[in-house]
Amino acid sequence: MPLDATVTDLVNEIQDVLHVPVDNQKLMVPKLGMLKAPFGDRPITDLQNKKITLLGTSSAEIDSLKAASEKAAARQAHLASARRNTPKAYSRRDPLRAQEESQYTFMTLRPLPNLPRPERSLAFLERLKADPGIRAAMRAHKFSVGLLTEMDPLSYTESSHEGTTRILGLNRNKGEVIELRLRTDAYDGYRDYKIIRKTLCHELAHNVHGPHDRNFWDLCHQIEREVAKADWKSGGSSVGESEFYEPSEEIAYDHGGWTGGEFVLGGGGSSSQSAAGTTVSRREIMAKAAEERIKKQKKTQADADGDSSTPGGS
């Protein structure tokens, strides 16, 4: 640049060489600060021997940005026109059903905080609450449960020579609290979802009927059918064959709950398999135990009769 040139001459030269419009140019000059349009008649010598930083957008970039902006505006206009021409969709959600679902449900879900990873138990309880079949059954029968919580795996467990019996669920005060045995005895696993859901159906029936009479079982089986019919998600899958579940009408030991467990012949452990490696039913175990008791009674009677017939016996 000639020594008599001005800063305006400089920015015009920048526009010609770098294609950055004058109005878009800003010059950062040490001690002089930021110079921007209009640049005036400041002599170019004021910038001599100084580092000049140019801030600006080229004409090509401006054109590209303008084209992109116009394209975006056209797209928005097209979408707006499409929305105006599309028939308005009306919500199919039934407000009465929504009100019933908020009323006939589990008001509070509570895992046991002292057990490992309570958030997993809470997710299990939330799945039960959101189950389409359970929700439909609770609306149909107008069931409202104050608290749905999990049962400690060590609670309500009894062992005898016939095996180990575990209560899978409890209903307190006809729906005030329902407890479900979610975890396995090792605390680190969870029982089959569909078994626990059937347990919940059983406990919901106790909201109406306490004893296990014909009215109770009719309602229980009705709820199970309703849950299965409305379960469009078909949720839950078996995780193994270690759990024994017997939907029998003859079970009386449950204190308002559903009884299940693992049983083994000839021992009091929790294995689900006999010495021969085959799973046996609870009814078979009970029959076997009854036979053993009869044999013991006959043997005791025979021993007593033998002692009384022996001279000198007492």
Protein model, in words:
The protein is α+β, with helices and mostly antiparallel strands and 314 residues long. The protein has eight helices and nine strands. Strands 4, 5, 6, 7, 8 and 9 form a six-stranded mixed β-sheet that branches. A three-stranded antiparallel β-sheet has the order 2-1-3, with no helix packed on it. The chain is elongated. It starts with 6 loop residues before the first helix and ends in a 5-residue tail after the last helix. About 15% of the residues have low confidence.
The count of helical stretches stands at 8
Question: What's the main sheet like?
Answer: 6 strands, mixed
Give Rg in angstroms.
41 Å
Low-confidence stretches: 235-282
Overall, the morphology is elongated
Number of domains: 2
Sketch the topology as an H/E string, one letter per element: HEEEHHEHHEEEEHHEH
Question: What is the arithmetic mean of pLDDT?
Answer: 76
Which range best describes the helical content: under 10%, 10-25%, 25-40%, 40-55%, 55-70% or over 70%?
Answer: 40-55%
Number of strands: 9
The assigned structural class equals: alpha+beta
Distance between the termini: 139 Å
What proportion of the residues form beta strands (DSSP E)? Answer: 5-15%
Biased composition (Low complexity): 271-280
Organism: Xylaria grammica
Biased composition (Basic and acidic residues): 281-294
Region (Disordered): 265-314
Task: List descriptors.
9 strands, three-stranded antiparallel beta sheet, 2 domains
Précis, in short:
With 314 residues, this protein is α+β, with helices and mostly antiparallel strands.
